[in-house]
Write a structure and sequence with these properties.
Immunoglobulin-like; 2 domains; alpha+beta
Length: 228
């Protein structure tokens, strides 16, 4: 037989062969002579047995099938338990990451919804109109229009007889103070002037307001609105 050292593959085969012999009862010890107690075997299986005690028992376990069989069962139990803990931790991490991703995508979707412009159609064709401006803007008796606290893409059918062109669009408090002002373009569609413009109402508190529409500082029309 050669005196050369075993390579890793040969060593692995030898250890597996020895394990098979031990597990198949190749070294019987029916009276369990000189065997360590179960707590010692468990400590060894858990890798918590001091090195000096390992050296004390290693030769015995290598030549005692009952001890090796018991040790091998305890070792598999320890390894399986560790894998179960690892799996639980991994599952928890995956769950946490999944929830974080869902929350992030939900937040991004919410942000996109907030940033997007939403169509707001207002029909003013048959509404009574008060004209004027400044602090003494009168209140109209019309049922208030409704507008959402969002970025709005306005589509306003103006009062019958209105002309096309550039208009100013404003949102005013009840005392006439102008809070928001933007520009829109009206075009004649099927005989009706349809005014389109964009306005951001996200930062207005929910409350009654006036929607003002005009072509100059002295010719505005006012309509009651409720921002929700």
């Amino acid at each position: 037989m050669s005196d050369r050292p075993l390579n890793r593959r040969e060593e692995s085969r030898l250890l597996k062969a020895g394990r098979r012999v031990l597990l198949n009862g190749g070294f019987p010890n029916p009276d369990r002579v000189g065997c360590p107690d179960k707590s010692t075997l468990r400590a060894w299986a858990e890798r918590s047995l001091p090195d000096n005690e390992v050296l004390e028992w290693v030769d015995h376990i290598g030549l005692c099938s009952p001890c090796y069989t018991e040790y091998w069962a305890l070792r598999r139990e320890v390894v399986n338990r560790r894998w179960m803990r690892f799996g639980a931790i991994a599952a928890g991490v995956v769950l946490a990451v999944g929830l974080s991703l869902l929350a992030w995508f939900g937040w991004r979707q919410h942000e996109r919804d907030l940033e997007a412009y939403h169509l707001c159609h207002l029909d003013l064709k048959d509404r009574g109109v008060f004209r004027g401006g400044g602090e003494d803007t009168p209140k109209t008796p019309n049922t208030p229009l409704e507008m959402s606290r969002r970025r709005l893409d306005l589509e306003i059918e103006l009062v019958t007889g209105s002309e096309g062109g550039t208009y100013e669009i404003g949102v005013l408090r009840g005392d006439g103070k102008l809070l928001i002002k933007t520009i829109g373009i009206a075009k004649i569609e099927n005989g009706i002037a349809v005014l389109r413009g964009k306005v951001d109402l996200r930062y207005l508190p929910p409350a009654p307001y006036f929607l003002g529409i005009g072509r100059n500082d002295f010719d505005w029309q006012y309509f009651p609105v409720v921002v929700k």
